[in-house]
Design brief:
This protein has 753 residues and is α/β, with parallel strands linked by helices. Helices cover 57% and strands 11% of the residues.
């Protein structure tokens, strides 16, 4: 989006303005356009100021209208007075926590809102109407509005009355407050009595419930010894722990014995005897007793355990094994000496068989003892488990009775506590009835106001002035934003994409004497003459670099000053010693001949029609080195004439004869032959009226020229009014050359050709 304010940059020197646009195309036409560090820009403030001054009439109009409307409304308004009384709120007597419900325990803000709604209710307003002792018609004619609102976040309520009478406003506000206090007193009395009745009923009910609870507790104590319950619980717990330990120990022993059974079936006799003969790990068995005097007895298991307890005699299998080994050794020595039939060998063999038979008997006996021990372990485990189950039932029964006693005791204590609280609260209410402090108190009484709240004349006038100024400034900057014209030299490069050739200041030309429009007839030291010389310098640099000799001067729409620009550019080239031919190519409204006092009956159209030679239509202007070709008769088909070969012949002749050829072409957007002429010439100079030419129209014109193949050299910003608001930069710059070229006829409108 285009900015509303785009202040131009100060030009540095005339040479920079003339040379930079064409010799260095990549740069902006002014050195001030280069980006600089952001800082406080006094010039920007001046630009805003001048934008406001430019349309100060609009600001003044809005200001006056706003004041006028406000004054009229103030005259019509009837004075309204406001009087206010205030109330302060505080908490009343709090109920105990056990008796307060969620609806009672509200935040102070909710309490304040409730009181505000009560004050606004019709009941309070109706009581206030009766209290002021006035007729309903009188009240309706004077009362405007009643406002009730909390003050900030404090528990203070303001009751404000707007009325047409000062005394009535104060009386009605006080009447509302008095009615509200009376209502609260009645409510408090009724609430206290209702609370006392309710508490009495609750106390009687709780007393009956408490008596029943105490009877149940006493009956339970009679039926069950409370002290014995505690002791029985401890004994049952200790016994249950002891039996659980024994059960776990017996279960572990049985599991070990059962785990040995499949292994023994596959083991050899020696392994069986060694396994069953080795003592099993000791299993601790806690003796029955209390937790403080419990002792642990370690019992062995397996055959060794049976021997230790005297159940069976100690086995002799180790002696048999030792004897068998000794006999086997003797048999081996005997066989080395004797044969198997020898009596000694036979004797030793027989003894070995007898010893082995005894070992087999020991193995069978050990296995029988193993299975017997396993069965015994299972019997013991079941016995201990049964005892454990019985003691567990006993412990549960004792625990149930203990819990029942605790529940009865808690219920009785709870009812006793509630009864005490309600009884104490009932005594407090009996004492506080009639002397309880007010929860709502009057903070300030309403007094008659000294001045009305509306209309506030000074404030209204001041606000009207601010509103009028705000609307005016908004319109000013809004119109400035909507202004689509090319206003500053910076916009030429930024918005049009053209090189800036120079700026031509505006002048009040004498409309009755066209010859005064020539810069050859004005002060050569003026800023106007210097401006055209700057444009000439820029075109000379461009023509030297690109070899340009024919120029077309055109614009987007009529009345932008292209004719005056082409005329004075031709004069400035001629003053530089060049032979210049000025051609009036506007074959619809061409009037260049009038500026020199020459005839326009024959000219450019005659050459294009083939009726005249170029040298026959060239006229001397009276200015050295400057000749003119007028339009001639206005043809009906100027666009077609531009496409004829006679035009190329004319241009060739002009180039051979003159150093520069300048065509004054019609506006691009108005006729079609301008684009054709722009495409055939060496270069095109665009003239834009500063502050008037629409940016969109200028862009469309440039697009047409580029599409036709025209060579755009740059743009001349014409009719720039340095005295106009917003161009104070350039006004300061050109003021050095005393540019202001005016006639003493300010009432005549400036002629723009």
């Amino acid at each position: 989006m285009r900015k509303i304010i785009e202040p131009p940059s100060l030009p540095k020197t005339v040479a920079q303005e003339a040379v930079v646009p064409t010799s260095v195309p990549s740069k902006q036409p002014f050195a001030g356009d280069q980006p600089t560090a952001k800082s406080f820009d006094v010039m920007a403030l001046k630009q805003y100021f001048h934008i406001v001054v430019k349309r100060i009439w609009l600001v003044a109009l809005c200001f006056i209208i706003s004041l006028a409307v406000t004054v009229v409304n103030l005259v019509k308004q009837v004075p309204v007075y406001r009087s206010a009384a205030t109330l302060v709120l505080s908490r009343g007597l709090n109920l105990p926590t056990q008796l307060r419900g969620k609806d009672v325990e509200n935040a102070l803000g909710d309490f304040v809102d409730t009181q505000v709604q009560i004050l606004r209710s019709g009941q309070i307003i109706g009581r206030a109407r009766e209290r002021v002792n006035r007729t309903p018609a009188d009240i309706a004619s004077k009362l405007i509005k009643v406002s009730v609102y909390p003050i900030g976040r404090a528990a203070v309520i303001s009751v404000a009355v707007d009325a047409l009478d000062q005394q009535f406003a104060a009386d009605f506000a006080n009447a509302i407050v008095d009615s509200f206090l009376e209502y609260k007193a009645e409510e408090r009395m009724e609430t206290s009595q209702a609370t006392a009745i309710s508490l009495t009923q609750q106390a009687n009910r709780l007393r009956d419930e408490l008596k029943k609870a105490e009877d149940r507790l006493l009956q339970f104590k009679k039926e069950n010894s409370v002290v014995a319950i505690s002791e029985r619980g401890n004994v049952a717990a200790n016994m249950l722990a002891s039996l659980s330990s024994q059960s776990a120990s017996l279960r572990a022993q049985r599991m070990i014995l059962q785990a040995q059974q499949p292994l023994l079936n596959q083991a050899s006799d020696d392994v069986i005897l060694q396994t069953l003969g080795s003592p099993m790990p000791a299993m601790p068995i806690a003796t029955m007793g209390s937790a403080t005097n419990a002792q642990t007895v370690t019992l062995a298991s397996g055959p060794e355990g049976l021997l230790e307890r005297g159940v069976v005699q100690r086995p002799r299998w180790e002696d048999y094994r030792r004897e068998r080994s000794l006999l086997e050794s003797q048999l081996a020595l005997a066989r080395e000496k004797y044969k198997d039939a020898h009596p000694e060998v036979q004797r030793l063999t027989t003894k070995i068989r007898d010893t082995q038979r005894l070992l087999d008997q020991e193995v069978q006996f050990a296995l029988q003892q193993y299975y017997a021990e396993l069965d015994a372990m299972q019997v013991k485990e079941r016995a201990v488990s049964r005892a454990e189950t019985e003691w567990e039932s006993e412990a549960l029964e004792v625990s149930r009775k203990a819990d029942e006693y605790a529940a009865l005791n808690r219920d009785a204590n709870r009812l006793r506590g509630l009864y005490d609280l309600i009884f104490n609260r009932l005594k407090e209410i009996d004492i506080s009835i009639g002397i309880e402090p007010e929860t709502v108190r009057r903070l300030e009484r309403a007094i008659p106001p000294s001045s009305p709240i509306t209309p506030r004349r000074m404030q209204s006038i001041f606000m009207a002035a601010l509103i009028g100024l705000g609307i005016g400034l908004g319109l000013v900057f809004g119109l400035e934003f909507l202004d689509d014209s090319i206003r500053y030299p910076e916009e030429v490069s930024r918005n049009l994409g053209l090189e800036f050739l120079g700026v031509i200041p505006a002048a009040n030309w004498d409309p009755l004497d066209l010859r005064t429009h020539l810069i050859s007839n004005i002060d050569q030291k003026s800023g106007l003459a210097e401006a055209y010389r700057n444009v000439r310098s820029a075109l000379l640099v461009a023509s030297k670099e690109q070899g340009i000799r024919t120029f077309v001067v055109t614009s987007s729409v009529p009345k932008e000053g292209k004719t005056t620009t082409s005329l004075n550019l031709a004069v400035s080239f001629a003053q530089a010693g060049m032979r210049v031919l000025l051609v009036d190519a506007d074959m619809r409204r061409g009037e260049l001949h009038k500026f020199f006092g020459l005839e326009g009956g024959r000219g450019f159209s005659d050459v294009l029609n083939g009726q005249s030679k170029p040298e026959a239509v060239i006229q001397r202007t009276g200015i050295n080195n400057l000749d003119l070709v007028a339009t001639g008769p206005f043809p009906t088909n100027p666009a077609e004439l531009m496409l004829r070969s006679e035009f190329n012949s004319f241009v060739d002749y002009a180039k051979r004869t003159y150093d520069r050829v300048i065509f004054d072409a019609p506006p691009i957007m108005a006729v079609s032959e301008s684009a054709i002429l722009a495409a055939m010439a060496d270069g095109v100079v665009m003239v834009v009226w500063a502050g008037q030419t629409s940016r969109r129209l200028a862009q469309m014109s440039l697009q047409i020229i580029r599409q036709r193949g025209g060579n755009l050299l740059g743009c001349v910003l014409n009719n720039l009014e340095f005295g106009r608001v917003g161009y104070y930069y350039y006004s300061t710059y050109y003021g050095y050359y005393d540019y202001d070229y005016r006639y003493d006829r300010p009432e005549s409108p400036p002629a723009k050709v």
